[in-house]
Design brief:
This protein is of the alpha/beta class and 254 residues long. It contains 5 helices and 9 strands. It has one domain: Rossmann fold (3-Layer(aba) Sandwich), CATH 3.40.50. Helix 3 links the parallel strand 4 and strand 5. Helix 2 runs parallel beside helix 3 and helix 3 runs parallel beside helix 4. Bound molecules: NADP nicotinamide-adenine-dinucleotide phosphate. The site of NADP nicotinamide-adenine-dinucleotide phosphate (NAP) has 28 residues, from helix 1 and strand 7.
């Protein structure tokens, strides 16, 4: 059985919010959290609760799936009001790279305003609104964390190939947003960490069209990525707030 989080007292029970819990990585994160005895409650926010985590028989009331429109300020305000503070950990696992209506651009001539705005809305504005409503609920008495799945390709410093302009820009903007949140909440929540996380290349619907040439050992299952990410979160310290970390704990320059 995986350990409790290192930051817990022996008798404390963590309360966690996962947004985008119906996605490949989000669902694996919820299931991994429920395997940890120190996690008392997981609020799983998704558009599709029917796609959500398949909890083991003994999870009982520890999992609360909520159908949520995480793109709506009002909907998030109502959700936050219905979830009592304190929350110990928020993981934003939502995001988009492609859909029926949009594909990552190869070159500048592929850019389309509507598609670009939609990627920015989902990858940047949604985490911003989740932060707006859930950061104030973070536990002030012990370590707490607000994390969002970013991507290594969102690093400006690491950009050697170009392409995927909207997705890269949306994740670069997400990284800036997380840094701003870290600065703003340092005073009111000195034990809190705000961080971006790169999950690796993970075999999900999001990556499926692009993983043909990825060597098998570099393509993680969602379960493997979720386990790595929870370990990274476990090791985060308040001094790490505002940074982006890869699945192996390496800091990603941005
Ligand atoms: N897979 C990879 O290789 C990889 C690599 C780097 C970074 N990431 C990042 O990791 C995160 C999770 O990706 P994933 O691979 O798990 O993708 P996924 O399986 O496609 O899941 C993404 C989830 O995001 C939510 N979402 C998508 N469009 C939305 C919309 N219009 N409104 C509200 N929610 C929406 C949905 O959650 P619900 O179904 O719960 O509504 C969806 O299931 C993303 O931020 C992605 O950028 C992934």
């Amino acid at each position: 059985m995986p350990a409790m989080f290192a930051w817990q007292d022996a008798d404390s029970q963590l309360r966690v919010v996962v947004a985008g819990s119906g996605g490949g990585i989000g669902r694996a994160i919820v299931e991994a959290l429920l395997e940890r005895p120190g996690v008392g409650k997981v609020y799983a926010l998704t558009r599709r609760p029917e796609q959500g985590a398949a909890p083991g028989a003994d999870t009982g009331s520890r999992l609360e799936q909520r159908r949520a429109d995480i793109g709506s300020d009002d909907s998030l305000a109502a959700l936050a009001a219905s979830i009592s503070a304190p929350i110990d950990l928020v993981i934003v696992a939502s995001g988009v790279l492609h859909s029926e209506a949009l594909a990552p651009e190869r070159r500048s001539r592929d850019l389309d305003a509507a598609a670009m705005l939609e990627v920015l809305r989902i990858n940047t504005v949604v985490p911003a609104l989740i932060g707006k409503h859930f950061l104030p609920l973070l536990n002030k008495r012990r370590k707490a964390a607000f994390t969002a799945l970013s991507a290594r390709v969102g690093s400006i410093a690491d950009n050697r190939l170009g392409g995927w302009t909207s997705y890269r820009a949306s994740k670069a903007a997400l990284n800036m947003l997380l840094k701003n949140f870290a600065i703003e909440f340092r005073r009111s929540h000195p034990l809190a960490v705000v961080a971006g996380l790169h999950p690796g290349t993970v075999d999900t619907a999001l990556s499926k069209p692009f993983t043909g040439r990825v060597p098998a050992e570099q393509l993680f299952t969602p379960e493997r990525s979720a386990a790595y990410l929870l370990d990274v979160i476990d090791r985060l310290e308040p001094a790490d707030s505002g940074s982006v970390f890869a699945w192996d704990g390496q800091r990603i320059p941005y």
